[in-house]
Design brief:
Radius of gyration: 19 Å
Pfam families: LysE
InterPro entries: LeuE-type
Membrane topology: Multi-pass membrane protein
Structural class: mainly alpha
Transmembrane segments: 6-27, 39-59, 71-90, 111-135, 147-168, 188-205
Main location: membrane
Number of strands: 0
């Protein structure tokens, strides 16, 4: 269980730096409205992620069950991540227009709803979660409890990273130039492309030729 949490934390950190409308609105809210308002907004975003995760899990449940018997289905998840990564890498247009957050200072419910809706209307988020579930599901033996722990830890790391972003909102806003944002997007795109290619490769290779656990055992045998 601890290994699952440790594996989830880097993904949560990566998710927090996916450049999009939510990223900029979160920084804007933190810089203008303060820490508490930004956290409330972020909780709305995370609620949308949880909803997408639930939909992605149940829509891919049968696929996950078949992955152990039909490794070729890994290609499906790999293609999803590959396309998402290519889109992220080559999509150079960065919209800095932020939806107006004209609410009263203490209208936290409105901020929560805005965070939820801003994330919910982005169908790419659902595609992203579907790809991640297909990648990590088999490695967690498709165990619902392990999957829940993994994604809870991932979202926890995401929220923790966002809290640090909120605390540094004013400094980040000044340092995030167009060129730096483009580099971050391209870096994230490359990571997703590599993950997609690895998954596609795993789908075409025989099951016992791409077994990480067996590879680790062989390395330990050589050391001994």
């Amino acid at each position: 269980m601890l290994d699952d949490i440790q594996a989830a934390i880097p993904l949560g950190f990566l998710l927090s730096f996916m450049i999009g409308p939510v990223f900029f609105v979160l920084l804007e809210t933190g810089a203008v409205r303060g820490f508490r308002a930004a956290v409330i907004f972020d909780l709305g975003v995370i609620l949308a992620d949880i909803l997408f995760l639930t939909v992605a899990y149940f829509s891919s449940f049968q696929l996950l069950e078949n992955l152990s018997n039909e490794p070729g289905l890994y290609v499906f998840g790999g293609v999803i991540l590959l396309v998402y990564g290519i889109t992220t890498y080559f999509k150079t247009e960065i919209k800095k227009d932020k939806p107006a957050l004209r609410t009263k200072k203490n209208d936290y419910l409105s901020l929560f709803v805005k965070g939820f809706l801003l994330n919910f209307i982005n169908i790419g988020v659902l595609v992203f979660w579907l790809g991640i579930i297909i990648v990590v599901g088999p490695s967690l033996n498709n165990d619902p409890n392990r999957i829940i722990v993994f994604f809870a830890a991932m979202l926890g790391a995401y929220l923790t990273t966002d809290i640090f972003k909120i605390l540094l909102a004013k400094q980040l806003k000044r340092k995030l130039t167009y060129k730096r944002i483009s580099r971050i997007k391209k870096g994230l795109g490359i990571i997703l492309i590599i993950c997609g290619l690895v998954l596609i490769t795993k789908g075409f290779l025989p099951k016992d030729q791409f077994n990480i656990e067996k590879g680790i055992e062989k390395i330990e045998e050589i050391r001994d």
